[in-house]
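tl;dr need the bound structure. longer version: we got a ligand (magnesium ion) that a collaborator sent over and nobodys looked at where it sits. i said id run it. heres the input, straight from their email, havent touched it
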Amino acid sequence: MSSEFDLIRRHFSRAVRHTDLGVGDDAALLRTRPGMQLVVSTDMLVSGTHFLPDAEAQALGWKTAAVNISDMAAMAAEPRWITLALSLPSANDKWVEDFADGFAACCMCFGVDWIGGDTTRGPLNLCATVFGEVPQGHAVLRSGAKAGDDIWISGAPGLAALGLQHLLGEIVVDEAWREACLLALHRPQPRVALGLALRGVATAMLDVSDGLLGDLGHILEQSNCGALIEDALLPLAPVLVASGDGALARQALLNGGDDYELLFCAASAQRDALRDLSEQLQLPLTRIGAITEQSNVIFLLAQDGTTEAVRPQGYDHFRGGL
Ligand code: ADP
Ligand code: MG
């Protein structure tokens, strides 16, 4: 059985590329670049709440880093450093190695140095803190949306929710699409390049972790405005349509969590630029509606022309959801 220090030495001490002092001392030393603001965010993943207890270790490592890095993307920040605090029921060397490899692979992919953390025994619990940089005053906040702005979403939201429902045995996702759904659930791709490209373009932004409508609600609240979402514009991915259940498809897209796509607002003058950006990044960007004056209300415009007021109902850990 490995000791805490064996695990740290063997699996958690990785080479760093832009850090003065990484793992091994009482604290890490890092230097922010002149003119930059430090951007900091923490996200925790708890067994049974955020992932199934039998989740594959490497994917879990990837996801622990990815959900944190996604918060940097959502601020239009460049992710730079990350720490990992974890509690483990036992020091299973193979599991820890796989987990650490997944975590490190995600960090490497997005230019993030893994600079420290803490390792204790306890129920499986994974908590990372990510540090990023943004030029002073250029972060994109939730509070900047203005009536008349377009509302955009990246990628194909809804896939992760379908993947989870499939794993839970609640639905059967067609084999042709299963892989895409499980990949979305297990290996979310933080939209870092998109976030950086949206500096000076997006007026408000966040990453969708708890469901599109619920998270849109956070922008509306902080920007003191409302939204009109058009059913006809929603990017129902082929997989959702192929599932043959229209209601399920919409539900997954509007309220499913865990996609880590970016939801953002931008002036309508930016439409052409955003279409070009979508092409350049090879990432779908879909305009799904517009910001309205009426505070904190989301209207859904159906294909038959009727509108319905919807309550944002993303996942809430103390109230539930979905
Ligand atoms: P201290 O007792 O001073 O808090 P620790 O013994 O907890 O120090 O940690 C020793 C070193 O190992 C520190 O540099 C710490 O950041 C690093 N470390 C511990 N756990 C992890 C981890 N899960 N990932 C990365 N580094 C870790
Ligand atoms: Mg410690």
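gonna send this back to them w/ a short note. The longest helix spans residues 57-74.
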